[in-house]
Hints:
This protein is mainly α. Helices cover 75% and strands 3% of the residues. A two-stranded antiparallel sheet has the order 1-2. It is globular, with a radius of gyration of 25 Å.
Amino acid sequence: xxxxxxxxxxxxxxxxxxxxxxxxxxxxxxxxxxxxxxxxxxxxxxxxxxxxxxxxxxxxxxxxxxxxxxxxxxxxxxxxxxxxxxxxxxxxxxxxxxxxxxxxxxxxxxxxxxxxxxxxxxxxxxxxxxxxxxxxxxxxxxxxxxxxxxxxxxxxxxxxxxxxxxxxxxxxxxxxxxxxxxxxxxxxxxxxxxxxxxxxxxxxxxxxxxxxxxxxxxxxxxxxxxxxxxxxxxxxxxxxxxxxxxxxxxxxxxxxxxxxxxxxxxxxxxxxxxxxxxxxxxxxxxxxxxxxxxxxxxxxxxxxxxxxxxxxxxxxxxxxxxxxxxxxxxxxxxxxxxxxxxxxxxxxxxxxxxxxxxxxxxxxxxxxxxxxxxxxxxxxxxxxxxxxxxxxxxxxxxxxxxxxxxxxxxxxxxxxxxxxxxxxxxxxxxxxxxxxxxxxxxxxxxxxxxxxxxxxxxxx
Length: 460
């Protein structure tokens, strides 16, 4: 594959995804801070009560009744998980997770970054009622982590950002599996059977060549998502399953697309030169021909990519900030300071900061030491240490699992204090460390350049 094709089909999509995360991270920080301010203001009671308001959806006896917080966490966040599923499928089919050699390093790093935090949390909470929160410190927040890497600009290699992206995506898949297996209520096998039927319909539609996104939206939301919601399995699992059913192929390939573009361009040029035609007819014909470019572009773009681009802005700038504002509000008083020494808070803070760092770094070293894989081009071990700290930012997914793990209000507060504290600390440590090593690298290069200049000017 030529370098231009590599940039077009592999590096550019990942780079575009990375660049979109920067402003999302800042918006998430703002939403979380705003939630904490409201939760510790005279409007605290109003803030907390607002999310407890119930919304009913349905007709006659078939009604889904959930409060506003659940509609956000079960409904809107399904869009986030759907986007995660799309990104994961893209990476598996044509990105950094395509093929064993490319995927083994970020997969191993992500597994290490999930297992070690869970074990540390278990150490502090084993045998206690709070043991159900073991999945909380396993998560990595991709928006925050990549946002911090972006602040460093070109001081860190692009391959490091790609590596962290791959780790976070695998981490998200791990969180989905944990939610499905360990944070599921009583099951309705009838609803699960209906869900399986709709999932089979989506898979068959993919195989026979149906490419219309509206079909997948209707079957995915009205069928699969609703059936899984009623089954007792968390509804976000339906979003990931639906994403994996979305076609990744396109109707026409690039060579055919180029030939059709050239033909349309030739037709436009011919219309512009045509003398025996009225001006209004000429403009109408040219406009109609230009409109065909839109249809042509759609046929040359996979439905997966179209959906990903369409959903990214809404999920990034509406769903995630709203989720953060609804879930990050922790009311802190004098008694809350003692929560820092509770098993839940300690397990989460140490699980994220220490567990993530050692899990990511050790498993990465293990893969390289066993010669199963090698570090990405331009990435050094000092960069991997920085990624270990940034992977400890667990904000979004950690808060999400918290709501599933605990009913006890005290445990909820302790967990949120741990998540917010660990994520803030990990972000600061990761940023300062990576900036420090990049500054030393810049100084070293300047010193070498200066030495070369002196030697070149020295007379023979």
